[in-house]
Amino acid sequence: MDIDPDRLDWTHLRSFLATAETASLSAAARKLGLTQPTLSRQVAALETSLSILLFERVGRGLELTDAGRELLTHVQDMGAAASRLALTAAAQRSDISGKVRITASDIYSTIFVPQMIVEVRKRAPGLIIEVVATNDISDLMRREADIAIRHMRPEEPDLVARLVREVTGRFYAATSYLDKRGRPKTREDLAQHDWVSFGDTNRMVDYMVAMGIPVMHDGFKVGSENGLVAWEMACAGLGICPMDDAVGALSNGMEVVLEGELDVTFPIWLVTHREVHTSPRIRLVFDILAQCIGATKAGR
């Protein structure tokens, strides 16, 4: 049976997209603000109109069929186009003006946020953007910032968060350091090396020990609360330092330590206060940042 593309219902396609992304009818219904029976009917209607099965139930979850996976790629493109259209339309509104304060870590504020602001200014020239470079989520609670980019989901009930993407990180050291101290072949070798800390050293030690890295507090010979300063120390040959791969790829003279064995994955969350999330200008910037971060390619 031929399918008339003009008769495809975007409402049904959107329900399929949300269900595919959450692998759950209930979660997809919450995401779209629908009841579960309504969403189920919309997905079933799409399957009927296409004459294909999109999902199979596996345990308590849903799994895409081969046909569903093939369709998903195209529907994701449609969803991205719809999002761009909505953002462009919102940016043209005359009342989208005022100041929006974005907070992110010092590294993220320096390397990634400026290009995102270029996109914000392009779409909403009436806005004034201020960047607060800090690792403290409490700046949102004190209303010192409107939107935060963080690697941990906040626990405060007054904050709302969206998981935008997951990125990879590895451990790096300068070629000059490794030429002098030797390149570790095993995790046990890492105990003999110097380390650069940024942030809370105790937390870094606990995290690394949990990864099977036998590092002690006295292994951290230098460090800084400022991530950029700590990274520059590592680039200067003062020790090994963990870093986002996108940053590592931009730095000349840095090598991955134990490549393929110490890779880590961590999330990027966009966070805002529950009350200001309904502000048109903050919602617009929030959505543009989500789109920019989601489109950022990893440095690997």
TrEMBL record:
Residues 8-65 form the HTH lysR-type domain. The keyword Transcription regulation applies. It comes from the Bacteria. Pfam families: HTH_1, LysR_substrate. The keyword Transmembrane does not apply. Coiled coil: none annotated. Keywords: DNA-binding, Transcription, Transcription regulation. Belongs to the LysR transcriptional regulatory family. This is LysR family transcriptional regulator.
